[in-house]
Amino acid sequence: MAIYLTKESKVLVQGMTGSEGMKHTRRMLAAGTNVVGGVNPRKAGRTVDFDVPQCLKGLGGAPMAVPVFGTVADGMRATGADVTVVFVPPAFAKAAVVEAADAGIGLAVVITEGIPVHDSVAFTTYAREKGTRVVGPNCPGLITPGQSNAGIIPADITKPGGIGLVSKSGTLTYQLMYELRDIGFSTCVGIGGDPVVGTTHIDCLAAFQDDPDTELIVLIGEIGGDAEERAAAYVREHVTKPVVGYIAGFTAPEGKTMGHAGAIVSGSSGTAQAKKQALEAAGVSVGSTPTETAKLVLARLEELLGEQRQ
After folding, report:
1. Within 10 Å of residue 52's Cβ, how many Cβ atoms?
2. How many CA atoms lie within 13 A of 263 on its CB side?
3. Any residues with CB less than 8 A from the CB of 237 and at least 6 apart, and which?
4. What one-character DSSP code corresponds to residue 262?
5. What is the pLDDT along the chain (310 residues), one digit of tens a residue?
6. What sign results for the dihedral spanned by CA atoms 265, 269, 273, 275?
7. Taking the complete model, does pTM exceed 0.90, yes or no?
8. Active site residues
9. Which residues pair with 266 in a beta bridge?
């Protein structure tokens, strides 16, 4: 099982013919993602050939021809796509997400960074009203190891398993995936660190709680804002599975803007320590480093195994 993304997902790539889109489409195909088309109104009707390593895709080394559509709606009609990954420049991101939402796509993964906050507010609100889930913006995307990869997360640093991961930080997503590679993950979701995101920690906590094959949840947060405190309150009331957390920024100086989230710490509000205390009060084990966090995960899994044996 997984959340949001499975081997059945059919993926479009908005901006596939650009340099970043081409590079990461190739990587997604190599990971086994069912990329069914790209979207570029100026190149509609063409196909793009991708050389995908035989050992990963099992297609005899033959290039994969991916069609390009003029609109998301055209791509959905032709392929049945239900996911789009957005690799367009910041100035065009709002229009790209609105187009996808108007077409009725189920999931829009917005990789683009540097999107103006007012645009993010507008398109996340619009997509929500249309029934489209947005992951991002300014995120690495999400991966269900062994099934599908929508975004830029490396596919070869982990394997399928029972850990669900939700993270603000792309880099820490990769690090925890690698640290726990021998255990494996159900789904890893990089929600992005911008002030406004379409999918929150709470959304992922709820989905992992309902996923029968997710045994333990890892939550990675960052200084600034109160998203982690709100997640802690949700864990206390609604999550019965073990949760292990990590907050980036324990050494951050007070009162200084920093990081891609533009996090501002003032007094105790938004500090890593305050978030750690809120999570621990909700029963979450919180590590002081990523490596310690991984060790806490292993310890909690051992406890689960012991409980199952009793």
Report:
1. 22
2. 27
3. none
4. T
5. 799 999 999 999 999 999 999 999 999 999 999 999 999 999 999 999 998 865 454 445 567 899 999 999 999 999 999 999 999 999 999 999 999 999 999 999 999 999 999 999 999 999 999 999 999 999 999 999 999 999 999 999 999 999 999 999 999 999 999 999 999 999 999 999 999 999 999 999 999 999 999 999 999 999 988 999 999 999 999 999 999 999 997 655 555 555 544 454 444 557 889 999 999 999 999 999 999 999 999 999 999 888 777 6
6. negative
7. yes
8. 260
9. 269
Q: How far apart are the first and last CA of the chain?
A: 26
Beta-ladder partners of 144: 148
Residues 6 or more apart from 272 whose CB is under 8 A from it? 223, 247, 248, 249, 250, 252
Cβ–Cβ < 8 Å for 168, 193? yes
Q: Which two tokens stand for residue 304?
A: 């689960």
Give the whole-angstrom CA distance, residue 151 versus residue 137: 11
Name the token pair of 226: 């109160």
Q: Are 110 and 93 in contact (CB under 8 A)?
A: yes
